[in-house]
Amino acid sequence: MRAAVLHEIGQDKLEVLDDVEAVGFGPGKVRIRVRATGLCHSDVSAMSGVLPQPAPFVPGHEGAGEIVDVGDGVPGLVPGQRVLLCWLPACGSCPACRRGQTQLCLAGFLNAGTPNFKRPGGDVFGFAGTGTFAEEVVVDAGCAVPIPDDVPFDIAALIGCGVTTGLGAAINTAKVEAGSSVAVIGCGGVGISAVQGARLQGAAQIVAVDPVASRREAALRFGATEAVAPDALADAKQRITGGEGFDYVFEVVGRSATARTAYETTRRGGTLCVVGAGALDDFLQLNMFELFFDEKRILPSMYGGGDVLRSYERAIALWRAGRIDLASLITHRVPLAGINEALEQMRTGVALRTCIEI
Fold first, then answer.
1. DSSP run (H or E) holding 68
2. Whole-number Cα distances in Å, 358 to 57, 82, 272
3. Are the CB atoms for 36 and 153 separated by under 8 Å?
4. Sheet holding 226-228, edge to edge
5. In the chain, count of helices (H) and strands (E)?
6. What angle, 0 to 180 degrees and rounded to 10, lies between the N-to-C axes of helices 256-265 and 233-241?
7. Closest CA to 132 of 340, 337, 336
8. What are the pLDDT digits (tens) for 349-358?
9. 3 state DSSP class of 263
């Protein structure tokens, strides 16, 4: 089958090969024919080494498709069923799951160290235990989440990561209050979803911050009340909040420099929500006095900060009701053979989300 492979960490292009095989099928597993997958910034971060991932590997973790085969001991799933891929499935029995914090379950991370593809030259890993830049993937049954027939594969793929992460950051983690002021730094697919989440929660002012003009324009269509370049953020803070700072600031870039800016843009007693996934060696510096004196809440948000299955259901319900716009998040579409074109769209910032149609 065909799949896009990164041979070595640090390479900036993928090679689409036709000699890749999805492996590991057996009890507790399902084989999925991938129909659509989104390109998430985490895929690019894994390619560059910002996020740890063994190579060679097939990127992609935001996907949807149809079940081809079901292993023994898998109830409730049948061939032909439409599913989205959950890259962080909950085991249901660990301490985090028992506390209701299923997004912190580590069971899914263990899959990342087990190859789920192979080529004549050896094993190939799947990013985050999935690897959706491939025609087929074999995953644990918990990764296959059934979707209703009226949800298109491309919409379901977005819900599998970016939409759930952004909406959840605003709704689950930060719990944005009605009438509040919000700034969102970084307005790709996840940031725009955070904008939509803040709008749903009733925020009065939502300032979108991004260096790319087309993304700023898009943020206004999705509910931002103002959109500015990074160098205009200080002025927006002064104009809108009287210099006090925003009630909520979302950092959706994953860098200490923007997280520091976000901290300084948050009012005393306000909330900084860290959504971007950054590098192990990139440290955010805060002095102990400001940490105590400002009493700003710093809330990391992992995969939307809540039960992901419930978050999927909520996103579908809001999409059906017309309360969130998911179709317009997909600004570009390419076939698997055009995956490097999609990477360029991501790196230059011209795309909110590129859908790879497989």
1. strand 62-70
2. 18, 15, 38
3. yes
4. 226-228, 205-209, 181-185, 246-251, 266-274, 297-300
5. 12, 19
6. 20
7. 336
8. 999 999 999 9
9. helix
